[in-house]
Structure formats: structure tokens, C-alpha cells
């Protein structure tokens, strides 16, 4: 549901052990391509498992630093996400059921017409 891959879990566990790190440091530690780590970090940040901030570099510029969100906050965020997903799924099921009932009603109305037939599996 949240789309966390095996690589994403490795990245997350690495950060839980280190406390905070950059994409380059994680890529080096795990032996994974930096762009793959970057995609995973962005996804984990998007779903609320990690926080991202900028660290200014002495030589100029900045680097993104990632850190794990406290477990209770992750639990809260994932619960909110799960409830939203469940609500959306129930809306879809309700819509499909309405369409099915409408189609059955139309088929019943056309019972005298041999061309009108509907078949629902399940």
C-alpha cells in the first residue's frame, strides 16, 4: 500500500542505525547506486517515514540530510494514510456496486428484449 520496496527498507534501517545521513553516504554504506538511494529517500520522505533538511557546506552549496521520523509519529502518519486509502477504496467499491445495480436494473427493464443480457461473475 505504501510502496516501500526491499531497497527502501534497507535505506530506512540504515538511517535508523545512523540517525542521519546523506544519499551518498547511504549509497556507499549499502553498496547501492546513488540514484536508486535518492529515489528511495524521496519516496520515504513523501510517505512521512523520513525527514529531509539541507545542510550548508563549508565550501559552498548544500547537501540534503535525511533522518528517521520518531516511531510514534510514523505510526500516526501511516495510520492517517491507511485510513485515507481505505476511504478511497470503499468509495471505488461503492461506485462499482452502483454501476452493477444500475446495469442489472436496465437488464431487468429490457427482459422482453432477447438482445439485452448481462452477466456478472462473482
TrEMBL record:
CDD domains the record matches: HTH_ARSR
Domain of life of the organism encoding this protein: Archaea
Alphabetical list of Pfam families matching this protein: TrmB
Limits of the Transcription regulator TrmB N-terminal domain: 2-72
Protein name per UniProt: Helix-turn-helix domain-containing protein
Organism: Halorussus caseinilyticus
Organism taxonomic ancestry: Archaea, Methanobacteriati, Methanobacteriota, Stenosarchaea group, Halobacteria
Amino acid at each position: 500500500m505504501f510502496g516501500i520496496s526491499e531497497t527502501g527498507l534497507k535505506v530506512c534501517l540504515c538511517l535508523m542505525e545512523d540517525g542521519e545521513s546523506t544519499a551518498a553516504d547511504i549509497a556507499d554504506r549499502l553498496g547501492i547506486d546513488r540514484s536508486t538511494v535518492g529515489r528511495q529517500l524521496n519516496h520515504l520522505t513523501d510517505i512521512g517515514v523520513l525527514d529531509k533538511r539541507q545542510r550548508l557546506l563549508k565550501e559552498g552549496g548544500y547537501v540534503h540530510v535525511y533522518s528517521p521520523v520518531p516511531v510514534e509519529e510514523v505510526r500516526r502518519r501511516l495510520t492517517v494514510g491507511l485510513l485515507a486509502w481505505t476511504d478511497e477504496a470503499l468509495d471505488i467499491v461503492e461506485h462499482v456496486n452502483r454501476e452493477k445495480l444500475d446495469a442489472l436494473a436496465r437488464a431487468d427493464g429490457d427482459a422482453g428484449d432477447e438482445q439485452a443480457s448481462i452477466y456478472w461473475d462473482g
